[in-house]
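Task card 7
Instruction: Convert sequence to structure tokens.
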Amino acid sequence: MKALVLAEKPSVAREIARVLKCNAKNKNYIEGPDYVVTWALGHLVTLAEPEDYDDKYREWRLEDLPMLPSRLELKVIKKTAHQFYAVSQLMKRPDIKELIIATDAGREGELVARWIMAAAKWKKPFRRLWISSQTDDAIREGFRVLKPGTAYNNLFDAAVCRAEADWLVGLNVTRALTCKFNAQLNAGRVQTPTLGMIVNRETEIQKFVPKDYWTIRANFDGYFGDWRDAGGNSRLFDFAQAEAIADKLKGHAGVVADVRMDAKSEPPPLAFHLTELQREANRRLGFSAQETLSLLQRLYEQHKLVTYPRTDSRYISADIVPTLPARLKGIAAGPYAEMVRPLLQKPLTPGKRFVDDAKVSDHHAIIPTEQPLQLAALSADERKLYDLIVRQFIAVLYPPHRYQQTTLVTSVNGENFYSVGKVIVDQGWRAITSRSAERDEAGGDALPEQTLSSRKKGDEAAVAGMKINKAKTKPPARYTEATLLSAMENPGKFIEDEELRESIQQSGLGTVATRAEIIEKLIHASYIERQGKELAPTSKGKQLISLVSADLKTPELTAQWEQVLANIAKGKDSKEDFIARIREYTNALVKETITDTATYKADNISRVKCPLCGKFMLMVNGKRGKMLSCPDRACGHRQPEKERNPGSLRPSKHESRMNEQLIAKFSDNSSVSSNLGELLKAALAKKE
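Output:
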């Protein structure tokens, strides 16, 4: 008897098969003496489409909404049906005694496997492989300690709830908006509030009125000082007041009123979880969140150099500590050899800042594996991202950055000027990375550091010069992917209710695994666009936010749902109760959309007419670039954008080919179609 191992991707399946000594390769699986290893291709099974429940849903009509089937059914995805059939046939083999789920160790990975099992009617025992890296040792250890499959039933329930909530809310609201305004509009429980934050920020920027303000800097003998009032404020919004202070300094010498010397210690940064790595890669390398995730996935699956990517933890558990020396030896190559050497010369005793079992959920932080490093095997971008991860990992194990900070207060005729100096005592972890413990985001009024010679209280300081500097207040910055990821992870600051704000700090908008995809979907749907590193809303995005329900465009509701999903995964909340509430909410959303009196006007109308119905087509973002799409949903024609003289009536080569296809479509043996074909042929010939 054998065990059937179900991986999520062929590449992962091949690695597992190699470790399990499965060498007989077939088209859809790899077999060995004890195991048969097969794979999904992502999802092979999904929720049924509306038209699968009733033919009337093939047409989008307001009167048919809301769509609330009594039970959501599953269907095999046509595109990958061949692989599902192969897997289901393997499941029916009499020599297969059990199934081992080896899909990604997370909520979505559980859903991939369980839906395949449900569609194939699997009834035999099953167990779960749960690993955080793809190294041979990790795979062997994972198979040694396989968990009962039923131990992850709650995780599966949470995954089903997520999928069904997206179906009920997303499909119903999307159809309601699209039918009501005759435009390609969609909304979702995570996507729409994310768009709402971007639109709200743009509104703040547009409404912002800059104000002039002034600061004062005095130059003393060998150093400078910046003016502050008694409350620590440096900005003066009245130029006359700034002039008055400057006049007070004339003819007066300064005196050192206070000298403070403080020993400072800056702890190492935390290790990366996915969102923080995406933020840092966007800030430092200009990578989009999706690019970072794709590169990270290759480092994990193909090169086996890092642990599981889709993690929300920045800590490791105590059982990982004994593996740290092996991980350090694995990365002791190239530029990292000298960094690692001091750590390997003494026992490693990382503290709570890195090791905390209570702060590790399904997966620990992203750290290097024990796999020996071969930098030459990495692409340029893979190497850049790997460098961020490795330096962060090494830095976490280094001592604190220690320095002596001197704060000098120089008083001139009753006005105080502040100066800050810094003397490094021990570089510590900053010898590895220049990144701060979290983020070097000192406020705009922070005192600049300078070299200060030894001074003591009461010393005289001659005023060598003084300058009044003019500046303007700045509007809030547009979101970049880095700052948007932060806002999605911590949406509490957008929520007024203190209790709710506190309750959602652990959930956020979406999950670490889905946030990059959400941003890409907003761009693809033409709701936002990249302008350099910034993300700006389009007219379509702004209008959508004005059309959707107030609940859907703010983070509160979505964050609550994510928290409930997390509780369902822990067995603390009921799947049935959650779905019942979602159904009620869907019904209310549809009614609100239908009765709304708002209007929508497309601003992406091109000068190209649809060849089928004659309406001016819309310019939209396609998977392969700009596309022209007919605004009439009943027509549905789409074609690539073409560069041609807008005034020319002569069709392009693409249009000519398309015209031939249209003629052939209508020119069959029936007399009716033949007549249509002739009419179309004549009309197109006249156009040419």
